[in-house]
């Protein structure tokens, strides 16, 4: 049996287009490097930041290695930060980009995805939502997070995690109380992000998002015409989604002219014959700051596949964690039915689960080339 093509989670962006102020950002980084001895930092932060700045002083010869470098969308995020925020951002970005490669671990995941809801109005052809074992309520995976649990998670991770995404298996804007959740998270994370299919992006939700000012708002769209969109985003209404995104831009420009929010249309590169990337980019650039395509992660049947022979450790065990709507903390979203769940927030804290026995055992098995003994890892191509 031949080993299938690997899906490298840390390099999933195929392309990102936008306006990236690289020269200005590196001028500020040079100034930070010179001022590093004068900064009041913890020893841990000082050490990691020194490594990040040292790497950024030279162009990496091999971008698949462990040298830290800035991707285009990272440059844009840095460009919108103040000088005071720069050290904190680079420290956490280094942890996110490099720790999964060097297999370093500290008390918190570099990124946490908090799931407002696992319920979605779409049945996209490339998504877990096509599996009735996820979507049918009788299986126990469908629901939405309570405001109390959301606040509990935010309180635990504030000051420890900067990259927080409000999204996972479902559509966040279907969540009752999403406006209150956004308000509670406002100003607490440098890298707060939300993903949405924009179906329910009405004026009220638009203002809630813009007032909370997350770092990035990602609109999930993979086409520039209604016919192609309907084939990929099943149950979606292209005209409604486009109208909502256009309206969001109008509100942002009119009422929040100084907003630092980055808007991005992000599509899954699922079928190159069906999707004209240049046409899609040209269409959506009128409405958003960035247009991106990410590689398709072939997740299908990971639970049922025969062992695929992959023995490389999955980088997500050191990069991110997911907290589902019911508090279950999961190591990845390919395991959308929570076979690998190492703990539940409420019974334990995010940090306790991240450094606890369940996660440690998973990491050890992956490092010891035993991922084929784990389901769904044995049928998954992600590393």
Shape: globular
Strand content: 5-15%
Number of helices: 14
The CA-CA distance between the termini, in Å, is 19 Å
Q: How many individual domains? A: 2
Average pLDDT value? 94
Rg computed from alpha carbons, rounded to a whole number of angstroms: 20 Å
CATH fold label of the largest domain: TIM Barrel
Helical/strand content category: alpha/beta
Q: How can the largest sheet be summarized?
A: 10 strands, mixed
Order of helices and strands: EHHHHEHHEHEHEHHEHEHEEEHH
How many beta-strand runs? Answer: 10
Low-confidence segments, given as residue ranges, are: none
Helix content: 25-40%
Q: Name the CATH superfamily assignment of the largest domain.
A: Aldolase class I
CATH class of the largest domain: Alpha Beta
Strand order of the largest sheet: 1-7-6-5-4-3-2-8-9-10
Q: So, CATH architecture of the largest domain?
A: Alpha-Beta Barrel
């Amino acid at each position: 049996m031949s080993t299938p093509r690997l899906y490298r989670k840390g390099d999933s962006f195929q392309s990102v287009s936008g306006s990236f102020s690289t020269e200005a950002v590196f001028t500020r980084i040079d100034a930070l490097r010179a001022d590093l001895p004068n900064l009041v930092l913890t020893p841990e932060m000082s050490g990691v930041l020194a490594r990040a700045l040292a790497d950024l002083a030279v162009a990496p010869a091999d971008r698949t290695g462990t040298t830290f470098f800035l991707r285009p969308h990272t440059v844009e995020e840095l460009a919108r930060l103040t000088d005071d925020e720069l050290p904190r951002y680079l420290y956490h970005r280094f942890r996110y980009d490099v720790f999964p490669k060097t297999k370093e671990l500290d008390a918190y995941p570099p990124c946490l995805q908090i799931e407002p809801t696992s319920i979605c109005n779409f049945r996209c052809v490339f998504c877990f939502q096509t599996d009735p074992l996820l979507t049918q309520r009788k299986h126990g995976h469908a629901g939405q997070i309570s405001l109390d649990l959301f606040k509990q998670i935010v309180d635990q991770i504030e000051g420890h995690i900067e990259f927080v995404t409000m999204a996972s298996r479902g559509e966040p804007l279907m969540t009752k109380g999403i406006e209150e959740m956004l308000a509670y998270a406002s100003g607490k994370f440098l890298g707060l992000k939300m993903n949405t299919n924009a179906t329910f992006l009405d004026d009220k939700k638009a203002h809630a998002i813009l007032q909370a000012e997350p770092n990035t708002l990602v609109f999930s769209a993979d086409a520039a015409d209604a016919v192609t969109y309907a084939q990929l985003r099943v149950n979606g209404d292209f005209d409604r989604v486009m109208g909502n995104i256009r309206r969001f831009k109008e509100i942002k420009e009119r009422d929040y002219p100084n907003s630092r929010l980055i808007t991005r249309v992000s599509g899954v590169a699922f079928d190159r014959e069906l999707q004209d990337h240049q046409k899609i980019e040209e269409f959506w650039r009128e409405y958003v700051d960035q247009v991106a395509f990410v590689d398709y992660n072939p997740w299908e049947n990971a639970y049922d596949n025969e062992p695929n022979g992959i023995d490389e450790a999955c980088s997500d065990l050191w990069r991110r964690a997911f907290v589902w709507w019911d508090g279950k903390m999961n190591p990845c979203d390919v395991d959308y039915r929570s076979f690998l769940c190492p703990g539940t927030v409420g019974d334990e804290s995010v940090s306790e689960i991240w450094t606890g026995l369940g996660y440690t055992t998973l990491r050890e098995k992956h490092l010891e080339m035993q991922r084929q003994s784990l389901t769904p890892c044995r049928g998954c191509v992600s590393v």
